[in-house]
Amino acid sequence: MMTNQACYAYGIFGASFSIHPMTSQFIDVIKGALAEADTSKVHMQTDDVTTTVRGRMVHVFDVTKAIFLHAAKTGEHVAFQATYSYGCPGDSTGDAYMAADEDPMNNDVVRKIRQPAAAKFSLYPLSGSDYMDTIYEQIEAMKQHVTVRSAHYSTRLDGETAAIFDGLENVFQSTVESGSEHTVMTVSISVNSPSHQGGNDER
Predict the structure, then answer these.
(1) pTM for the whole thing?
(2) 14 phi and psi, to 5 degrees?
(3) What CATH number is associated with residue 75?
(4) Does 177 map to a domain?
(5) Each residue's pLDDT tens digit, 30-39
(6) What contacts 72, CB < 8 A, 6 or more positions away?
(7) In the chain, how many domains are there?
């Protein structure tokens, strides 16, 4: 079993996510999205609850973004729930993919998919006493990518799906570089929802 320090040193990154297409053809949407995404640079395992992706940060975000966008382009209402993690104690799955280069395999394809989305995210730097300063700094940084608003227990994001994922990746990377040896981020994204009106600012 690897220690927390070893995970931090090797840069192993991962995500556990679920896609929920609101259609009777949900199996076809999910399987089609998984098949269309190039996952050659990550370790990926799917069970009856979630799909787990392991490897370098750039490729984990690249793959999860591609899978979600391939599902979203069907026009169906699709929801995405994910937990991204770095530096988890005892985490070793995906070591074999750490030798992959930094070139994302899905970028050229997904950049052509235009898909407005609504999202919420929460960031958890699990080290250091100044974690709230880090969180506020990264929420502010997200404004460079999409529209940002406060929400209960999270931060609301509205914009293009690709821009949302780009912002999430940059925020996570910056948090790790700030010295957070164990970092977690939860994300919820919705597209093509019949109720989407630009967000509910309930307080």
Answers:
(1) 0.87
(2) -160, 170
(3) 3.30.70.930
(4) yes
(5) 999 999 999 9
(6) 78, 113, 115, 117, 161, 191, 192
(7) 1
